[in-house]
Design brief:
- It is a single chain.
- The chain is of the alpha/beta class.
- Helices cover 42% and strands 8% of the residues.
- The longest helix is centred in the first third of the chain and has 19 residues.
- It is globular, with a radius of gyration of 22 Å.
C-alpha cells in the first residue's frame, strides 16, 4: 500500500492501464513546486503525466449534488451537536488514563516487561464515554500464538480475582483476546490482546488524520452512531467495522475537490522518509505539519482550502457510497509500487489495510452488500429531503439491538448526551 518517490512522480502507469473499475482512488503526492505541471520535466519525467494526473483526479472526484443550503445548514448544526454530545468530558478522559495506569500496575506483577498500549478509539480520536477500551499488552519474546495465549491465561488468572469484573477468554478469535467486562452496567469493558502492535500503529495513523481537520472527528462519530443505530456496525455479523468505516471516510475526504485530507503515507514515501518497521511491516507516515501543509497546497492547485461544512460532507458521503461507488478497493494511499494494478470490478466494500498491503480490514459478508447499500441510500434520501439526522439514526424494526446511548428516535438518551460508563477499578 505504499508509493515510492518514483512511483508517485515519474513512473506513473499509462492512462490506458487504469480503465473503469481499476482503482477506487487515485492519489498524487510530490515535493511541492510552484512550477506546477513542469515539475515532472524537472524530474526528468514526461510533463504530460501531471496533466493526466490532474484530469484523472477531476474525473474520479465525487460529484456534488445541488442541495438546499438551509437543509445543509440545519444538518450541520445537528451533526456538530451530536458529535459534541458524544465526546467524553475531561473527567472521563482522565478516568480512562487512570484505568490504563491501574491496569499497567496490575500487570507489572504478572508478566515481566509487560507494557500496556491502548489502541482503537482510545487512541484514534473517536473514543466516547460509552466506548470500550482496547489494550495491547506488549510482551518481549511472546512471538507465537501459543506464547501469547499463555500470557493471556496468566493475565486472566490474576484479573479474575477482581470481583467487579468477569474475564471471558476468546482464544479462537483471529487475534486472541481476553474480554474483561463489568458485572454491572455503567462500567467500561476492556479487550486485551498481546503484541497486537500493528493495531496500535493503525490507530495512531487515524489519530493523525483526526488532528488535521476537526471535521474528521465530527463525521466519524456521526457515521459510527448511524452504523450502530442501523445495525450494520458488527464485524462478527459480516457488516462494517468502525475501523473500516473511518478508512472509508478518509478515502472519501481525500477525493473531494479540493481535497480535505492528503495521504500521509504517500507523503512519507515521496519524501523518502526513513522506514519504520513494525513486525516486518513498513509503517512510515508523515506527521510533519509543514510537509503536510505543502502537500495540501499542491493538491489544491491554487484553489482555496476546502470549506465544505460537516453537514454537506456527511450527505455527500452517503450519496457517494450509496450511488456513485460501484466497485473497487477503497484505499487511503497509493499501492501500485507494491501491488500491480488488477481488475477490481469484483471488489465491493473491500477496504485496504493502510500498512498490510492487500489485506481487507472490512471483510464484509457478501450477503450484507445489498443491506449496507440500502442503508447508505436511505440515509442520503432522508437527508436530501431535509429530514433531521435523528430520523436517519432511528432503528428499523429489523434492528434488535440499538445502541444504549440512543433513545428510540436515535437521539442521545436522557441526560442530553451519551450514556456515561464509569472506569471504576483499582489495582489490588
Amino acid at each position: 500500500s505504499s508509493s515510492s518517490s518514483s512511483s508517485s512522480r515519474s513512473s506513473s502507469p499509462a492512462p490506458a492501464a487504469m480503465g473503469p473499475g481499476r482503482l477506487a482512488q487515485a492519489t498524487r503526492t510530490s515535493v511541492p513546486s510552484p512550477i506546477g505541471e513542469d515539475r515532472f520535466s524537472a524530474d526528468g519525467g514526461d510533463p504530460s503525466l501531471a496533466a493526466w494526473w490532474r484530469r484523472r483526479r477531476q474525473e474520479s472526484a465525487p460529484r456534488t449534488a445541488k442541495l438546499d443550503p438551509s437543509v445543509v445548514e440545519r444538518l450541520t448544526s445537528d451533526v456538530e451537536r451530536l458529535a459534541q454530545d458524544l465526546l467524553p468530558s475531561a473527567q472521563h478522559l482522565a478516568q480512562m488514563q487512570d484505568f490504563l495506569k491501574a491496569l499497567q500496575q496490575q500487570l507489572d506483577g504478572i508478566v515481566e516487561g509487560a507494557q500496556v498500549m491502548p489502541f482503537g478509539s482510545a487512541v484514534n480520536g473517536f473514543w466516547t464515554a460509552s466506548s470500550d477500551v482496547d489494550v495491547c499488552v506488549r510482551v518481549p519474546r511472546a512471538t507465537t500464538r501459543a506464547s501469547q495465549i499463555k500470557v493471556l491465561r496468566d493475565i486472566s488468572s490474576e484479573l479474575g480475582r477482581i470481583e467487579k469484573y468477569q474475564v471471558e477468554p476468546r482464544f479462537g478469535a483471529q487475534v486472541p483476546i481476553l474480554h474483561w467486562s463489568p458485572r454491572r452496567p455503567g462500567m467500561v469493558a476492556c479487550d486485551i490482546s498481546v503484541n497486537n502492535v500493528l493495531a496500535v500503529v493503525n490507530s495512531r495513523l487515524l489519530g493523525q488524520y483526526v488532528r488535521l481537520d476537526h471535521r474528521v472527528r465530527t463525521l466519524g462519530l456521526c457515521l459510527k452512531a448511524w452504523a450502530q443505530a442501523r445495525g450494520i456496525n458488527d464485524r462478527s455479523r459480516g457488516t462494517v467495522s468502525s475501523f473500516a468505516l473511518v478508512l472509508m471516510l478518509i478515502h472519501f475526504l481525500q477525493r473531494r475537490t479540493p481535497a480535505v485530507l492528503p495521504s500521509l503515507q504517500d507523503i512519507a514515501f515521496s519524501l523518502s522518509l526513513e522506514p519504520d518497521f513494525v513486525n516486518g511491516v513498513d509503517c512510515r507516515y508523515c506527521a510533519d505539519a509543514s510537509q503536510i501543509h505543502a502537500e495540501m497546497e499542491y493538491l489544491r492547485a491554487g484553489r482555496p482550502p476546502n470549506q465544505e461544512s460537516s453537514g454537506l460532507l456527511l450527505m455527500e458521503f452517503f450519496r457517494y457510497f450509496g450511488h456513485e461507488y460501484r466497485n473497487g478497493i477503497i484505499r487511503i494511499r497509493d499501492t501500485r509500487s507494491q501491488l500491480p494494478p488488477f481488475d477490481e470490478t469484483g471488489s465491493y466494500l473491500v477496504v485496504d489495510n493502510p500498512f498490510e498491503v492487500g489485506k481487507d480490514v472490512a471483510n464484509v459478508d457478501g450477503s450484507q452488500h445489498d443491506i449496507i447499500q440500502k442503508e447508505l441510500r436511505r440515509a442520503w434520501a432522508l437527508l436530501k429531503d431535509g429530514r433531521p439526522f435523528a430520523e436517519v439514526l432511528r432503528s428499523s424494526a429489523a434492528v434488535t439491538e440499538p445502541p444504549s446511548s440512543f433513545g428510540p428516535a436515535g437521539t442521545p438518551s436522557s441526560g442530553g448526551g451519551a450514556s456515561r460508563r464509569r472506569l471504576e477499578w483499582k489495582p489490588r
